[in-house]
Design goal:
With 475 residues, the chain is α+β, with helices and mostly antiparallel strands. The chain has a domain of 94 residues: Jelly Rolls (Sandwich). A hairpin with a 2-residue loop joins β19 and β20. It is globular and about 70 Å long. The protein starts with 33 loop residues before the first helix and ends with a strand. Belongs to the peptidase S1 family.
Length: 475
């Protein structure tokens, strides 16, 4: 894998315009847009069948990853995909047994993911900022990696050691280029800010999200016209542009192959998963996720919490869409290299951008979300609003009485979030969970057959914030 530091690549209107890949008359393959499959064939050396199989496998393994993470009590140290297998790192035997029982490969390591994140932060604070290109956790080696400028390896390593971080915990690697962001990207269509060109990342309620370095709050855009209402850079690299009523946000991304890819949601993919990027300069390109929660230092400052990939990008690709299948992953922040020799590109997670702006992802080709099956037909309805990490008991903390039989429940959470639904039964003065819906989706359905007693529903905002509705039917 070619390693290079990320850089901001601002492009003016007078620069080369967006290139569009040659059209294709191939039909969609098993539900995937031909542009995505073709890009995987080109960039990853796969046949059509192999590309489709890989997409399906990655989707399944990412779902499994989310379920396992939620059931592990402690000691989680990251996960990654290798071929058709999911590997989950843990720090204890009990966790390893849970991972194997869930059908994944367990890897026992010394440090948990939270410990590695703290080490990464400590090492970064100790190092000379101007010399550090990027810092991230390599879950496969259970260590921290710091990419630094040429000739700075010794100084950075010494500073890290002086801060009390053991040499065996941090690998310091020199890179050829220092970071810069990648201006001018497309998720669906290009837009313009003064003398610069950027593009839609993903459509959201009333507008779209894109990279924060594309414009500051209050800046205006054209084609489509809009205003930056939220912008954060550095620290983060996201922005929300409100386009008003003149334009209609559509839940799709330009595949630069004569069509679009519908966006179905924003389930986060695992390390090792296949992802594809859409940008107005280089079109569709694919690769894999190398790390999550990476920190990158640009000349303008540091951005943290990024998705690191080996997808290529070039000037004009910043702000564009990163997809895993039909699931929105992130917004192009910056990178290095190019699409001739390869490179490294970082992405701002899309969920954080949506949450900061208080908007929802537009899915399914436009129009917003569709309630999960069964919600409208449930006998008793409930609703509420939660911040990320919060939970609420429904219809209340005292619960409700139920006769023996089957109870069904349904939750419709905010688009772009991960909301879970638990059914609990009162037992011995406490509540015990008897059924649950804990997929990576914002919507859940639960069905449980039990004995008479006192029950309650608990809605948990695993990630993301917003309003929810739901309902249930008792025997």
């Amino acid at each position: 894998m070619a390693t290079a530091a990320a850089t901001l690549l601002a492009a003016s209107i007078t620069a080369a315009t967006a290139g569009t890949a040659a059209g294709s008359d191939r039909p969609e393959v098993d539900g995937y847009a031909p542009g995505m499959v073709a890009a995987m064939e080109r960039d990853l050396g796969l046949t059509t069948a192999q590309a489709v199989d890989r997409l399906k496998t990655d989707e399944s393994l990412s779902e499994k990853q989310h379920t396992i993470i939620k059931t592990l009590d402690r000691g989680y140290a990251g996960a990654w995909v290798d071929g058709d297998e999911l590997f989950v790192a843990v720090t204890d035997k009990a966790g390893a047994a849970e991972v194997r029982a869930a059908g994944a490969k367990a890897v026992t390591v010394d440090k948990s993911l939270s410990q590695l994140d703290r080490l990464a932060a400590k090492a970064y604070r100790a190092a000379p900022r101007a010399k550090v290109a990027a810092t991230y956790v390599d879950v496969e080696s259970n260590s921290v990696v710091m990419e630094v400028a040429k000739g700075a390896k010794g100084a950075v390593a010494a500073a890290v050691r002086q801060a009390g971080v053991s040499a065996g915990s941090v690998s310091v690697v020199e890179v050829a280029e220092m970071p810069r962001t990648l201006i001018n990207v497309v998720g669906g269509n290009a837009y313009y800010i003064g003398g610069s060109r950027c593009s839609v990342g993903f459509s959201a309620t009333g507008g779209f999200v894109t990279a924060g370095h594309c414009g500051s709050r209050g800046a205006t855009t054209s084609q489509p016209s809009g205003t930056f209402q939220v912008s954060s850079f550095p620290g983060n690299d996201y922005a929300y542009v409100n386009t008003g009523t003149d334009d209609t946000p559509v839940g799709a991304v330009n595949n630069y192959n004569g069509g679009t890819v519908n966006v179905a949601g924003s389930t986060a993919a695992a390390v090792g998963s296949t992802v594809c990027r859409s940008g107005s300069t280089t079109g569709w390109h694919c690769g894999t996720i190398q790390a999550l929660n990476s920190s990158v230092t640009y000349p303008q400052g540091t951005v943290s919490g990024l998705i690191r990939t080996n997808v290529c990008a070039e000037p004009g690709d910043s702000g564009g869409s990163l997809l895993a299948g039909s699931q929105a992953q992130g917004l192009t922040s910056g990178g290095s290299g190019n699409c001739s020799s390869g490179g490294t590109t970082y992405f701002q997670p899309v969920g954080e951008a949506l949450s900061a702006a208080g908007v929802s992802l537009i899915t399914g080709g436009g129009g917003g979300t569709t309630p999960p099956p069964g919600c409208a037909s449930q006998r008793t309805a409930f609703s509420g609003s939660l911040s990320s990490g919060g939970q609420a008991a429904k219809p209340g903390t005292t619960g409700f009485s139920m006769l023996s039989g089957t109870i069904t429940g349904c939750l419709d959470g905010p688009t772009g979030t991960d909301f879970d639904l638990y059914l609990q039964k009162a037992s011995g003065g406490s509540w015990t969970t008897v059924a649950q819906g804990i997929t990576a989706s914002s919507d859940e359905n639960v069905r449980y057959t039990g004995t008479s007693g006192t029950y309650r529903w608990v809605v948990h905002a695993y990630s993301g914030s917003g309003s929810y509705t739901g309902g249930y039917t008792t025997p």
